[in-house]
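Sequence in, structure out.
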Amino acid sequence: ANALVGRADMPLYDATKAAVLSLVRSLAVAHGKDGIRVNAVCPGFTVTDFHERRAQTDGVSPQQLRTQSQGYGLLGRPAEPHDIASAVHFLAGADAAMITGQTLMVDAGSSVTAGRT
């Protein structure tokens, strides 16, 4: 979602995310004729080992992190790594054979509201 929603404190980070999405579209145009599909997955907050370790340095257990994250997005919880992997698996598979140049937001709907509900 950082590619789509501007933030005053991280303009360069957000700009690089937007550049990747533009690259995806350009590559899809360039290689579609060869049957090559190019898509992007934009994960929202995902509870990973990195986030768990970072939380622990602040005295927050992995379970507390998940509890504090309840209510995230429209679906009420952050993603787990398998949620992101499932989206990538779908886009790589035959069921997505006609999808190219697209961005799949896997963020519990948080980008729909720009984080506001």
